[in-house]
Every structure is written in structure tokens, then in C-alpha cells.
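Researcher: We're teaching a course module on how sequence relates to structure. For the next exercise, students receive a sequence and then see the predicted structure as C-alpha cells, so they can try to spot secondary structure elements on their own. Here is the exercise chain.
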Amino acid sequence: MLSIEEKVAAARKAMEEIEGYSQEQVDKMLYVMSKTIFDHAEELAKEAVDETGLGNVSHKIGKNQNMATNIFADLKGQKSVGVIHRNEAEGLIEIAHPVGVIGSVTPTTNPTITPLGNGLMALKGKNAMIVSPHPRAKKTTTHTIEMMRNALASVGAPKDLLQVIEEPTLDLSQKLMSHSDVVIATGGPGLVKAAYSSGKPAYGVGPGNVQVILDDDFDVDVAAELTVIGRSFDNGIVCACQQSLIYPKSKEALVFESLRKQGAFVSDNEKEVTAIRETIFPEGVTNPELIGLSAAQIASAAGIEVPDETPILAVKVETSGKDEFLCKEKMSPVLVLISYQEFDEGVKHARNNLLVEGAGHSAGIFSMNDAHILAVGEKLSVSRVVVNQPSIDAGGSPENGLNPTVSLGCGSWGNNIISENLTFKHLINISRIAYKTESTLKGSPWD
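Model: And here is the predicted structure for the students to work with:
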């Protein structure tokens, strides 16, 4: 097994080998990497659940396939080699350069799509990437990287553009970060802080606690369907999963009925709500044993019997923010229901919850009212507001304009450097050639 120094040296050598690659050759690398993960999506999904015990196999299959498809489709054809932009009017020419060897520290929740997504972004800019997987997901992540390495070899590209630490430890992760040129840290706040302390430029992520508001004018049945999709996906372990549904009090009966039609367990019974709260957050702290389990498994742990196929548990609470533990991020398919009398009160509930956890990440709204949609964007400290979609589409979708990614920046609200979805443009350096032009300054700006 190579040392970190040897892996970095091998990565730099691989970068030298593709220094003269054309845009077509770069995109061919991305194609074969994406296609091999798409073709092995089921195998890798089963492996991930077997190894980590987290999530839902069928959802992970879809996640692997969708991210392989969507990220490649988004990157295909975009300029990342040589001259990428000319502005004749301003006399500017932009030329792309790699940033170097990228150290990617990946989570146990996404052992395939995080290496895939970050790898595609890295190689799009002719960089190399070394992955430090979560120890609980090292088998799946190593297998993912090996598949992509073989795909690179199939088109004559050097395998060492992608490498993995086969036996990851905290010390090796920190060493990788300090020896890389740029770090992408996808994980908890401790990991992100370590990345920012590595002495290298770093892109981190923040916790998700996605608040979604149902407006009075929106179809409740549609909102319930989208909510169940957004809350149940991969048993709720995705950072963009919906955490709350904040709805008009006048439509409470209809909201409950619509959620039940979607198969959800819905409760406003104080005893049941308390049982679920104390099961997920014993003494106010997340129970790690329940992360990524199904709704039926969580209900059973709380002493509640529900059908095995139940997609989510939806529980009504009477307050928002720090006084209600259930308003924090939940890495499980448990939805919080909060009612409001006036729309502004609903926005206030969302803000209260984001102040506890999740500021900078994402929010959503089901509405046909443009003024209310804009109000959510103006009043909530989030980097993305998805409108009339499952909240998981905050990670980018063919049905919105957000670029597909596996790393969602949360801005200064979430202690991140970017407040957008990470893409290859964050992983290239740009040289700007500036020709002399006629002055655009006409008269004095102080007049």
C-alpha cells in the first residue's frame, strides 16, 4: 500500500500524462467513468447497504444512476480545457488550468456518488483526485474508485488520476488534506473544520435541515406526494431531504389525509410524538443506532406498530426552533408537521428551525404565489430554495437550473466558502489575458 506522499507523486505524474489532452479526450474520460457506475448501480447500492447498514437499496440504485447521468450530462460540452471564454468587447481571454491534486474526504452516507461526483468535477479540469473514505464505507468506496480507474484505463488514460486510501484513518485523512492542493470535505462539522485547518484551500459543506412551506394556494395532494418523496429518499440520510412541512392551520385535516394516502404514518397524539422524539433524540442527542433505518424500524424502536412499507413517520409539534428537538436535522425518514395561521408565521417557523441547525443549506416552498416565493428567498438564510419540487432536487436536477452535484455549499451561514452547488469551475484556475481597450470611463464618476 502506497504512502500518502507516494500517492500524491503518482497523481502528479498522471496529471502530466494528460496535460495535452483535448476537450474531447477529457469528456471521454468522464463518459466512461459515469457509464461504469451507471451500469453497476445495483451492485454498488447493495454493497453500500450491506457494508454501512444505512439507507434503502432501491433508492441508492436510483441515486447512483441519476447522479451518473445528470452530472455527466451537465458537464458534457462545457469548456474546461485551454481557452474557455473570449470577450471581444472587454478584450479578455480566459484560459483554464488544473488546480492540482484534490483530496476528497467522503462520508459513510454516500460511498459511491460522492467519489463519482467529485471525481467527475476534478477530472473535468484535468486534476487528479485521491479519496479518503469513511472507515465504515471503505469497501464500497474502494470498489467504486477501482471501477472508475479501470474505466480510465479502457480509454488509455492513466489510472492514477483517481486513487483511494484503502485503509483510512483520521491521521491519513489529515495527512492527505495537508499534502493536497485543494480539499473537498463532505461530512460532518468536525471534518469540515479539519479541512479548513489543513492549510490548503478547502470546500466544505454544512448540515441540512430543509424546511418546506406549503402555501394556501397549492394542491395539498401534490405537496404530500412530493413531501414523501423528499423525506423518505434513502431513508432520510441525504442532506437535502425534507425535514419539515409547515402548512396552513386551516388545511390541517387535508394535509394529514393526503399524507396518509401516500402511505405515511401521521400522528398528533402527544404520547406517540413523545415516544418518537425520545427514541430519535434521547436526552436531546441524535441516536446513532437509528440513522438510516426505515420508518417501520424507527416506529418499532418507539413502541409503535406500522406497516413495513410505511415510507415516513410524520409527527405534529406545537413549536419550532430550540424548544423542540424534532426540529433539528434528522437522519431518518421522520417528518415534522408545523401549522401556521398567516404565511409570515410559517416563514418564522422555518427561520427558527434553521437557526438551530441547517442555516445556509436549502429550503423549499409549494406555492403559485411569486411574492411568497421571493419572500422565502429573502427572509431565509439558505443558498437554495426549490419551488414545487422534492427538496432533494436542491442537489441539481434536469427539472431545475441548479447544477447537479454531490457537494452543496452553504455560504458563510454554514461556515463554507461558496453558497452554491460545487462544480468543476471551482476546481480550475483561470488565467485572464487582458488586451488594451478604449477607456470605458467617461467623465468623472464623482459628478
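Model: If you want an answer key for the exercise: The radius of gyration is 23 Å. The first strand starts at residue 82 and ends at 87.
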